[in-house]
Structures are given as C-alpha cells and as structure tokens.
Design brief:
By secondary structure, this protein is α/β, with parallel strands linked by helices. 35% of the residues lie in helices and 26% in strands. The protein folds into 2 domains: 161 residues, NAD(P)-binding Rossmann-like Domain (Rossmann fold), CATH 3.40.50; 190 residues, Dihydrodipicolinate Reductase, domain 2 (2-Layer Sandwich). A 7-stranded parallel beta sheet has the order 3-2-1-4-5-6-15, with helices on both faces. Strands 10-11-12-7-13-14-16 form a 7-stranded mixed beta sheet, covered by helices on one side.
C-alpha cells in the first residue's frame, strides 16, 4: 500500500513516516509544503529512506483531490495541525479518490463532528475516515476499553498528560494548546455540564517516575466523545501539565490575562513562547507520561478506582501520540480493519495492539488500584 503522510517530515509526521517505512509492504510519500525539506528528511532517515519519496503538497490547494489522484495513495494520514479551526477538505479529497483517511487531530469539535460531516460519504466510497488517532482519544479509549470489564458501573474518567521538558516542542501542538488557554468550554463534572477555563483549576497529581506534578484544565476530544461512548459517565475531565514550574505557572498566569480580555488569544504567541522555552531545554528531564483514572463500582458492588499510567524516557514520549495512526495504518494495509464510515478513533484497536507497536522504545506502563 502507498501511504501519503501530510506533514510527513514534521514533529509527529516524521516519526510516523520512518516507522511505517520500515514495513516491507508499505511505500511512504512524505508530503508537505516543501519538497526540499521532505527530501532532506528522507536523506537522514537511514534504511527507511528506501521506501520513501518526497512530495510538495499544499493542503489548502483548490485542486487537492486532483493532486492526490496523481499519486494514488491507498491511505492519507493528516498530521499537519493545528486542527481547531480546520475544515474536512483533506478527508473529502481522500474520499474523492477512494483512499482511507486518518488524522491526529486533538481538536474537540473537529473530532466530534467527523461522523455527521463525512459518514455518508465514507460509506459510499467504502473507505474509513478516522479522526483523533493520537493519545486522545485513541490511546485513552483503548485503555478504558481494556479495563472497563472490571467495573459493573463506570462513573468517572480523569486523565492527564505531562511531557518531559527536554522533549522537542511541536509548533502545531503548541498552537493548539495555547488556543484554549484562558478560554471557556464545557465539560461533564459531578453529573452536570459545567463551564471551565483552559489551563486553570490547578491540581497536584503525583505520578511515580514523572518529575512534574501540576496539571490544569485542557480541552480535548475526550470531553465529548467519551460521555457519548459511555452514557453512564457522570464525570469526565482532562488535564495537562508542564514539567518546569516556571513554565506551568507562567502559562496559568497568562490564562488569567486571556480570561480578563487583556490578551485575545495566546496561539499567535506560539513561536515566541517556544523560543523562550528553548532557553530552558537543558532543565528538567526527557521523561514524560500520561495517567488515566477510572472510578465506579466493581462487580461485587464495592467502590473501585484504577489508575493506569504510561511513562516514556530517552525522549521517546512523542512516539506515543504517533502510535494510534501507525497501528491503524498497518491494520488497513493488511485488510484487518473491516467496514467503512467516518468515526472518532474509538474501538478500532486494543491496548495490546498499541503496546506491541511500542516495543523497542523506552516506554513502560503500570496499573494499580487506588482504593
């Protein structure tokens, strides 16, 4: 199968390109605005370079479907975020040429709306359109599905991500985060939908092996798709943190400026803030991770609370948000993912599938009861 990866030499796209290029039956088209940048990326990709070729492709081009048809990919993987204000033109172009589509979107509305927008077209084309193939909701949904059988009733899901400070910062991811800092959005808290603000409501969550422990509200697709998937939920919250307190609390202070209307939107500050944070790259560690808490009743009716954690060292943390797309691409190439339609990334692979794809990386998981 030919797989075209849009943003294929970027922060996450580059990892997906190199990983899939090592599969003997896959050919990877590394696509982006600059063919020269794609060629340089391939040149430095070692043995994987044999299965890759560069392509200049602008996702905003009016003739995007025509350009895609020239290269006839069987799958398009869209990694060129941020997705918060994007439309579905790339997915529509993929369907127009009969190709499957996967994206790494962390945009709540984008992921939640994919079914109503494109399900009929995807079924007509007999293709898969999958949005949110990343840590959220891809990995988080797989974790919940793996441990849901331990509960008679599942009432609460809380999760959070904290990257190591020495992990490289992606511009698109930074813009996505800054876009909701200080801004209001709705989440399910204690049985009712309430308004919270991005990067506020600080909480300390000590996780073994992680050096930062402060988290704040973040808007992600899980806040909508998980209550839809599990209607019994009364509580669904997601948070993120930064390892260095100066950065975490600095962003918290900035959130109040946005909330007060003194700054309209921090996303436009992304490049400047990355430049400032780069001066502190040697501080902190390269260890990051994620936790997911599930609370409810066990089969015998007693209260049950589980915490699942994943830790990544040696700078391997960014491989985690790339892995859902890698697993799905392999399943599609092997004909193991049947059916068609447009959906958020839920119930499409198991946690075991995900962890198998991470073998060889400095990544470990643990789960324990918090009763």
């Amino acid at each position: 199968m030919q797989i075209l990866i849009l943003g294929g030499y970027g922060h996450f796209g580059g990892r997906i390109s190199r990983t899939l290029a090592n599969d003997p039956d896959l050919e990877i088209i590394v696509a982006g605005r600059s063919a020269d940048a794609a060629a340089r990326f391939i040149e430095h990709s070692g043995t994987a370079a044999r299965s890759m070729r560069p392509l200049s492709l602008d996702l905003d081009a009016s003739d995007l479907a025509t350009q895609l048809r020239r290269h006839a990919p069987g799958l398009v993987i869209h990694t060129a975020g941020p997705f918060q204000h994007r439309d579905y033109r790339v997915a529509e172009a993929a369907l127009a040429i009969g190709a499957h589509y996967i994206d790494l979107s962390d945009g709540r509305d984008f992921v939640t709306g994919i079914h109503s927008a494109l399900n009929a077209k995807a079924r007509q084309a007999r293709c898969r359109v999958i949005s949110g193939a990343s840590s959220v909701p891809g990995l988080s949904a797989a974790v919940i599905a793996a441990y849901r059988p331990r509960f008679r009733h599942l009432h609460s899901i809380e999760s959070g991500i904290l990257p190591g400070n020495q992990t490289p910062r992606g511009l698109a991811t930074t813009r996505a985060i800054l876009g909701y800092v200080g801004r209001p959005y709705r989440i399910l808290l204690d049985g009712c939908w309430q308004t919270v603000h991005g990067w506020q409501s600080l909480r300390k969550v000590p996780i073994p092996g992680l050096h930062g422990n402060w988290y704040a509200h973040c808007e992600v697709p899980d806040l909508s798709v998980l209550p839809q998937r599990y209607p019994e939920l009364r509580h669904c919250d997601f948070r993120a943190g930064l390892e260095l307190r100066r950065m975490h609390f600095g962003l918290w202070l900035a959130s109040w400026l946005v909330r007060a209307g003194l700054i309209r939107n921090l996303a436009s500050w992304a490049e400047r803030l990355i430049s400032i944070s780069d001066h502190w790259m040697k501080a902190g560690t390269d260890v990051g991770g994620m936790y997911l808490d599930m609370s409810g009743d066990a089969e015998d009716g007693t209260p049950l609370r589980l915490r699942w954690i994943i830790r990544a060292a040696a700078g391997d943390g960014p491989q985690i948000p790339c892995t859902a797309a890698i697993v799905l691409a392999r399943k599609l190439a092997r004909g193991e993912l049947h059916g068609s339609g447009a959906t958020p990334c839920l119930d499409l692979f198991s946690l075991a599938d995900f962890m198998e794809a991470l073998e060889g990386f400095a990544i470990e998981t643990d789960v324990f009861s918090m009763n």
